[in-house]
Design brief:
Blueprint: H1 9-18, H2 35-41, E1 53-55, E2 61-64, H3 71-84, H4 93-103, H5 109-121, H6 125-137, H7 143-159, H8 163-175, H9 197-216, H10 220-236, H11 244-257, H12 261-274, H13 281-288, H14 312-334, E3 342-343, E4 349-350, H15 356-360, H16 370-383, H17 388-396, H18 403-417, H19 422-432, H20 437-444, H21 447-458
Antiparallel strand pairs: 1-2, 3-4
């Protein structure tokens, strides 16, 4: 849910305006299991997990969302619940004052903007649109007020799938730029183009909104070109109020549907690696792992694989695999080359299946990943001694999730090639003493290498002493 409804601004805003949010876990493998929560919830809900429930102050349930409800379903569920229980939708004293001041004949543009924003947060799009539109048409409105009003109108029409009006307001936003920028249908400006702060900010807002619309209209190649180029500009020189997470996430969506999954994973991993506190971080992480998940991803038209469920190990393994795209494509992104495959330090495109470092990074110490791990180890064996060093380096990285399998991979390559680097033997000995039970268990299967090494050192196999048959 952190990747879905809880990553959505309008869901976040409405919950914080009208509800007291709390997370609870009454059982299962999740974090935060709480006896008090279990007693409070009791048998009041029908869904077993991954849903949103609303209770009144007495603990009586007012409603619950569908299992794995997406961002739009969750927002509508919250609005319906408030509609059925209007007492919970009463404005606070401060909110009532904001709405009253914004409707007054003598209301200032700032007061109108505050009232419009409050209506929008509450999902009251009718009055929000009227106030925002009045601000855009009002001659005394400052440029900053007009900008915020246009952004509000763009958000509302995006949520309503009213793309004709959305395009109209995007063009109006671009007209605020100085100098004027081309419309969204024109060629994308070069990534190296310089902007003043005002123009850069407005162009970024307009490009993000155009990207949303083009993805909805399935104009994926155009959306990709626009969003990737703007993501490169913003990453290099962020503007005030930048929308980096949105740019990278939806650039990834456009790449995915444009048939380039490696670049999609690059953009999603960029968000997860660089913006860990952003609301879109978990959504990006899950999208990056989509190719191993049996759950429909609403951001990817419900994409899922055919499988009978998965655990956290599967998700982590999927993300680790996607991370190879981030590492391999970052040199290209840094210089504005937004097409093609991975590159080496020499600037050559490479195949993941022939690069031991990238293969090792896909290992994961989990019973759910055995089949994939075995395939990776087979590839590492085929690549020979060059696989040993990256596998041992991964084992020595205490933050790596596949340390046990990395050591096992190194031992299998050593066994297949006859190589016996002292560093590798030392790692196996350390693995046998590890406090990590998974690493220790796998290390036991590597002990043959140590015994074979000992035999090679003495020049003959070790045998038990044999007592002489002669007497005396």
């Amino acid at each position: 849910m952190r990747a879905g409804c809880f990553a959505e601004d309008r869901v976040i805003d409405l919950i914080n305006r009208r509800f007291v949010p709390f997370y609870y876990c009454t059982g299962g493998p999740g974090l935060g299991q709480d006896d008090a929560a279990r007693e409070f919830v009791g048998e009041k809900t029908d869904n077993p997990w991954a849903f949103l429930a609303v209770f009144d102050e007495e603990g009586q349930i007012l409603g619950e969302s569908a299992l794995y409800a997406d961002k739009d379903e969750t927002f509508e569920f919250l609005r319906r619940t408030l509609g059925k229980h209007p007492g919970a939708d009463r404005p606070s004293t401060a909110e009532a004052s904001t709405l009253r001041d914004g409707r007054a004949d003598a209301a200032s543009p700032a007061q109108q903007l505050a009232a419009a924003a409050l209506h929008e947060e509450l999902g009251q799009y009718g009055p929000a649109r009227r106030l925002y539109s009045a601000l855009v048409d009002e001659e005394r409105s400052a440029a900053a007020h007009v900008e915020q009003a246009l952004l509000g109108l763009l958000r509302i029409h995006r949520h309503l799938d009213n793309w004709e009006s959305h395009e109209h307001y995007e063009h109006q936003l671009r007209e605020l730029c100085t100098p004027a920028q081309p419309s969204s249908g024109a060629a994308v400006t070069d990534a190296a183009e310089t902007h003043d702060a005002n123009t850069g900010r407005l162009t970024t807002h307009a490009d993000v909104e155009a990207g949303y619309r083009w993805i909805a209209q399935r104009r994926f190649a155009e959306a990709r070109a626009l969003l990737q180029r703007r993501a490169a500009v913003e990453t290099a020189t962020p503007t005030e109020g930048n929308r980096l997470a949105e740019l990278h996430f939806y650039a990834g969506v456009a790449c995915w549907f444009d048939g380039d999954r490696d670049w999609a994973k690059f953009h999603w991993c960029w968000v997860a690696e660089n913006l860990p506190d952003d609301r879109l971080c978990r959504r990006a992480y899950i999208a990056a792992a989509a190719e191993v998940l049996p759950y429909a991803n609403p951001e990817l038209d419900g994409f899922k694989i055919e499988a009978r469920g998965c655990g956290t190990g599967t998700i982590v393994r999927g993300y680790q695999s996607a991370l190879t795209c981030y590492v391999g494509l970052f040199p290209k992104f840094a210089v504005g080359d937004l097409t093609g495959g991975f590159v080496t330090e020499d600037g050559l495109d490479i195949d993941r299946e022939t690069d031991p470092s990238r293969l090792v990074r896909e290992l994961c110490d989990s019973n759910e990943c055995v089949k994939v791990n075995n395939h990776i180890v087979d590839r590492l064996i085929a690549l020979g001694e060059t696989s040993i060093a990256p596998a041992l380096a991964a084992f020595e990285n205490r933050d790596f999730i596949g340390r046990g399998y990395a050591l096992w991979a190194a031992s299998k390559v050593m066994q297949a090639t006859g190589a016996r680097p002292e560093h590798g033997l030392a790692c196996i000995r350390r693995g046998l003493q590890s406090e990590n039970r998974y690493v220790k268990a796998i290390s036991r299967s590597c002990r043959t290498i140590l015994s074979q090494s000992s035999e090679a050192t003495t020049g003959r196999p070790k045998t038990k002493p044999v007592r002489s048959s002669r007497s005396g």
